[in-house]
Amino acid sequence: MSGGSRILGLTGIAVALACGTARAEPSFAVRTGEACSKCHSGITGGGMRSGHGSFWAQTSLPHRQWTKEEGGILYPSFAEGRLSVGADVRGQYLYVHTDGDDTSSFEVTEANVYGNVELATDRLSLYLDETVGPGGASARELYALFKCAKDWNAYAKAGRILPPFGWRLPDDDAFIRQYTGYTFSAADTGIEIGAEPGDWSLALAATNGSSGTSDDDRSKRFSLSAFWRLPKGRVGVSGANNTVDGVTTTAVGLSGGWKIGKLALLGEVDGVSDERLVALAEGNLLVARGVLLKLSRDWLDPDRNVDTDERVRDSLGIEYIPVPFVQLRLFARRRDGPPQVAGARDEQVDLELHVFF
Amino acid sequence: MTGGGGVQPTLASIQANIFTPACATCHFPAGPGPMPLDTEDASYANLVGIDSFCPPGMRVAPGDPDASHLVEKIEGQAGICGDRMPPPPASMLTTEQVDAIRQWIADGAPR
Questions:
Q1: How many whole angstroms separate alpha carbon A219 and alpha carbon A300?
Q2: CB within 8 Å: A65 and B56
Q3: B-chain residues near A39 (CB < 8 A)
Q4: Which residue in chain A has the smallest CA separation from B38?
Q5: Which helix (H) or strand (E) element contains residue B61?
Q6: Which residues in chain A are contacts of B46 at CB distance < 8 A?
Q7: Which residues of chain B have pLDDT under 50?
Q8: Is the pTM of this model over 0.80?
Q9: What span, in angstroms and rounded, lies between the C-alpha atoms of A340 and A324?
Q10: What ipTM score was computed for the predicted complex, to two decimals?
């Protein structure tokens, strides 16, 4: 790896700050008790929805469904076929209040299209997750997926992938994603193997550690996650190791989720190289059909040897899915941290429109 | 015709005696099963005259139980997509319960 890409390879922070935004929703997995692979064709979560995932999202999530007469009922186009497509498009109005200035803007925060071809049903597929905006187009993920569905759903991916680590949250700005470097913006090139024996979901990836660029050394980044599904929740461990120019960065994490009635709880604590600690606690309440209330706190200690550098981010929001394919999200966030750190302290309100299938 | 165990071939009775206790434990909004079946309105809207996700056909084809994927699923017929319903290890519906659903569909699956 070149020295110029060292920072990216070490932590992915710079990439994370670019604020990539494609999403998964682990609270749904906790709420339903299903493995991520049940609803996502990429097995480890995020990106294109599987046939079941699309079907579930169109029938079980919305406040109401469109009738046939209203032009509704799409369902996935690939229930019987081998070619499938999907998309996620998000736009938002963001208002930011700081001590010095207030700003607001309309933004397209995500435009991703997905394509999957089952070259041999349940055995071999080619998957593309293409970012078409904002900014230029680029392949976020592009890989061949080999599966042995009958043998613990064992699989192998080869290509440009999103390596596994912790909860794949629908928020790249969450500290546990930003400061471990495992965001939706941090795809990398390599291989991943995994399996789902019983109630376990296991994944191990070896990638360049260069955030998607080609590598110029023999060191590789290793990432793993292991989740155990329980009747009311799940627990998981994650680990990562990357050596760049003789400097080794390690990360370890504990993740968990629990369901209490209509409340789904998520939590994660990660440590990075004996210095940095990040954590998340999130509550996700199903208020009514199609209406979810979210409350979360992110916590970051960039350096455990320094007492005055801690940062927090509190979020309160509501998500409303009135009809299939449409989600409205209204969130208020407050970030607090050392005043000398740029961007550490502000208050935000964002209203987002998400169209997906 | 009257289904066994007090189940009548009406949506109200099927909802109270079958869908709610046996299906809506998973098929509820944001629950693990797609297609909520937790209320009469939801069950009717999600079943009657609605194209099946897999295989082709209707979930409930009014007047034709043999062409209804719901019947194929609860009878565990060969060729269905996924598990029979309710899925193992839960017990299959009783013959009387299946007959009540069949009769309701044969009657046109009225609301």
A1: 28
A2: no
A3: none
A4: A60
A5: none
A6: 59, 65
A7: 1-4
A8: yes
A9: 45
A10: 0.76
